[in-house]
Amino acid sequence: MTTSAEPTRSLVDPPPVAPEPAPAGTYTFVVVSNRLPVDYEEAEDGAITWRTSPGGLVTALEPLMRSSHGAWVGWPGVAARDFEPFENDGISLVPVRLDEADIEDYYEGFSNDTLWPLYHDVIAPPSFHRETWEAYITVNRRFAAAAAAVAAPGATVWVHDYQLQLVPRMLREARPDLVIGFFNHIPFPPYGIYAQLPWRKQILHGLLGADVIGFQRSADAGNFSQAVRRLYGYPTRGVVIDVPTSETGQNGDSRRVIAKHFPISIDSAGYEELARRPDIQARARQIREDLGNPKTLMLGVDRLDYTKGIGHRIKAFGELLADGRLSVEDVTLVQVASPSRERVSTYMALRDEIELAVGRLNGDFSTISHIAISYHHHSYPREEMVAMYLAADVMLVTALRDGMNLVAKEYVAARFDVDGVLVLSEFAGAADELKQAILINPHDIDGTKDAIVRAIEMPKRERTRRMRSLRRKVAENDVAVWSASFLRALTGGAAVPAGIPDDLDLALQSIAGAENLLIALDFDGTLAPHVDHPEDARAIAGNREAVQALLDLPGVRVALVSGRALVSLQHVAQPQSSVLLTGSHGIEVQLDTPEIELNLLSTELEQLDTLARVLESISGGIAGTTIERKPAGMALHTRLATDEDGERAERQAREQLGDQLPGLTVREGKNVLEFSVRSSTKGDALKKLRDYTGADRVFYAGDDVTDEDAFGALRDDDLGLKIGQGATLANYRVRSPHEVTQVLVRIAELRAAQAG
Q1: Are residues 364 and 469 in the same domain?
Q2: Residue 30 and residue 159: Cα distance in Å, rounded?
Q3: Of 74, 183, 258, 685, whose CB is crowded by the most CB atoms within 10 A?
Q4: 208 falls within a domain
């Protein structure tokens, strides 16, 4: 690890932000990334053309960019040149200028010589230099200014990757009207590693300017939240972080930031379409023939990067040949190592190391007619890569640390013949989804060798079973699903149509077939419309019959998960005796018994008395406010108050209770502010219900911000349903409680039909 002198700014100081509010532009959707999705080409006569770069991100966002009047902000790939905004293939592009010094210090320096190795578990030592950090700030400010200048009032801005981590905060300061998302395409390290960064707080401060921060893996999101807790002390609940709206945090107001994993994917249909082309299939056969038609062709496709484990792969293969477990006459390894960051000294040394290892292995084991490793240090067009995927019997992905690794998914998508074996590092994000691959620890050379032999010797029937499962996973979660899920969480859907959307109906067909299904439902705003007086709430017509139809089916449990006290919930919901109940955000539980579980300590009872005295005093002096008593807390309702009086009541409650009972749990809902002496969430309640019922899949429906804790507790194969507008972690959305009843009826119909 190398370092220059200590940084000039204190670590507690936030990074510089755009100093002046920026005027609004015209684009309602803006993507910001280091590179524009085009490649620059200049003919001999000086004519300039732009060619669309192949890539999953472009494929996913292209339709949205066209339909929503979108713009893409980024560097065009040409140093020290100014380009005016232009349109290419129907997409508006806004170039940001980078000079040679910017490329050296911001990109090759701080981004790739500091952040990249640090975020990849310090496989190579990062360097910390004040000059490159200053360049990083300067260039981030340039990108933020360009995005702010073109974004329309209230626009959605989606910022991408580790090179631009300060942009979200800079945008928020310049344009507080914007909806801002950020997606980190590489890992986010554990706190013990992240803490080495001298500018660790400034980076977090920059990222927390976003409304939604996306990561490849759940562990990455957890690492980020832990860093926020350790360095800033902000409250975190699952995937939710409460960020103060003022620098001091003294006024009690906060923004809710979502930090969650959204695993990226590929255009799976596009890869399969290429693989089915006769010319590409012929090319796959030609590749095998050119290599001497080995019995087994293994393939590795990587950028030449120290995170990819290429050396470990070559070492394992060489030892298998030396041990006699494989022979060069039967097995050939094709290694594609695309050039990467060739001006960075670490990468120059890596290339020498890999090519020396390849040369030695080929010298030791190749024959006149058979080569051990066919090594290629250049990139190939997508068509050639798909032909290689079709030709390869075994795909080796041995990354030491990888945010996702889309090559693994590309291989699976191309194998329409349902053959081939994927050997996949457990340290690649793809391992979370592609569990039917042979998973390895690439640091374990003996284990990697055994996995390679197992892949080569795997019977056809097992290969087919595994590949069919892998292909289903990749097809169901392609890049369009990824982008849609992120943007659903970010934008909240301005207009929600009536009825059950087609994509929701498909998801219901899947979840209805679960062996043990838990249907968990919020009540107010979900089964019943919101009313002025909470005691008047009732479920809409047909709801009770829909719930009963579900209860009559084997393997189905139904539960109500409410913020209400259970006595109140039983009064308004009048649930069937077999419906499981949780109230007060999981503090009260009633599970197949008449007893309600709740044990308050004497100190908590004393806090309740103080809470009641303060809130009754406030409510008694402000018209339109009411108090709802709960077993472990109280709620201040402001639905009937004017906006000004409601805000005043909530402000007084926060201030007075913050002084007298600083340890209270505070939840903000729709025209309600709730204080609890015991910390629990609907997410906690849902986990308890899952454990109790043994459900293998869960359906949860809710409408309030408190329901986001439950959505955050869902697993990848569960189904979350948001009722109405607003940012959400739920997979799907419907307009009102009427649609919820339709959904419950549909689940019952589908499950009954599948059982029949």
Answers
A1: yes
A2: 8
A3: 685
A4: yes
